[in-house]
Amino acid sequence: MAIEVRIPTILRTYTGGERAVEAKGDTVAELIDDLESRHDGIQERLLENGEARRFVNIYVNDEDIRFTGGLQTALSDGDTVVILPAVAGGAR
Amino acid sequence: MLTIDRETHDAIVAHARRDHPDEACGVVAGPIGSDRPERFIPMLNAAMSPTFYEFDSGDLLKLYREMDDNDEEPVVIYHSHTSTEAYPSRTDVALAAEPGAHYVLVSTRDGAHEEGAPIDFRSFRIVDGEVTEEEVRVVERYTTGSTPDEKAEV
Fold first, then answer.
1. Domain residue spans of chain B
2. Where is the MPN domain (chain B) (predicted)?
C-alpha cells in the first residue's frame, strides 16, 4: 500500500533531500514505523514517549490527525500524509 | 542580512501594533531561492496570548500548500514580543523549524505599540539551536531582476 508522505525542509536530512517519500501502513503509527525503517532517526523527530509531538503537525488528506484519531488514524492506498512542524514560539 | 521593502516592513510593524498586547505572527513568502520577502501574509495567532504564538494547524497547511503551488518559501517568519526585547526566547529557539528563514522579531513593549513611537525590528537566523543576529536593510522597493544585494538603498 503506497502512501505519499510530504517531508518538511527540516526533516529532509533524513530522506536524502527528498520532499516526498512513499511509505506504507494501515495507521499513522505503522506508517511512522515504516518511515523509520528506511529513514533512520525520523521517528524521534515525530514522536515523544509514543505520542505525536506537540509541535509537529501530521495531516492525512488535509485533516490534522489530532481530530481524526491521532496515531491510530486509518490509512488507505492513495492517501496523502503531510508533516509540518508548527510555526510557534513566543516570549513565554 | 535581511533586505526588506518598506511597505512590508511597515505592514509587519502595523500588525504587531494592532494585536498588542497579544503577540502577532506571520510570514513573508518569496520565490524559492530568491531570499526576497515579497508576499506579506499576516497569520492568526491561534494561541491569542501575550506570551505565545502559534499558527492554527489548518491555516498552516493551507499556507504551505499555497507556497508550494507558487514555488515560494517562507523567507521571513515574524512575530512580536509585547513585554520583552525583540530577541528570540528559549521557546523561539527550541521551536524554530525553518533554518532557511529570517526570523524577524518586533517588540511593542514600553509604549512601542503606539503609532509613531520608535520600535525594535530585528532579524535572526536560528539554525540547530544557534541564534545569529543579522543586519536589516529596508529598501524602498526591490529592483527587478537583481539579487537582494544589488537592491536600491533607501
1. 2-144
2. 2-130
Chain A residue numbers touching B61 (CB-CB < 8 A) = 57, 59, 62, 64, 82, 84
In order of start, what are the domains of chain A with their CATH numbers?
3-85 (3.10.20.30)
Note the pLDDT of residue B154. Answer: 46
Q: Which CATH architecture has domain B2-144?
A: 3-Layer(aba) Sandwich (3.40)
Amino acid occupying residue B109: R
CA distance B118 to B14: 12
Secondary element (H or E) of residue B133: strand B130-134
**Cα angle value A39/B54/B127 (rounded, 5°):** 50
Q: For residue range B77-120, list pLDDT tens digits in order.
A: 999 999 999 999 999 999 999 999 999 999 999 999 999 999 99
In this structure, are residues B116 and B90 in contact, taking their beta carbons and an 8 Å threshold?
no
Task: Test A91 with B96 for CB contact under 8 angstroms.
Answer: no
Q: Which pLDDT tens digit goes with each residue over A34-58?
A: 999 999 999 999 999 999 999 999 9
Residue of B61, B83, B97 with shortest CB distance to A91? B83
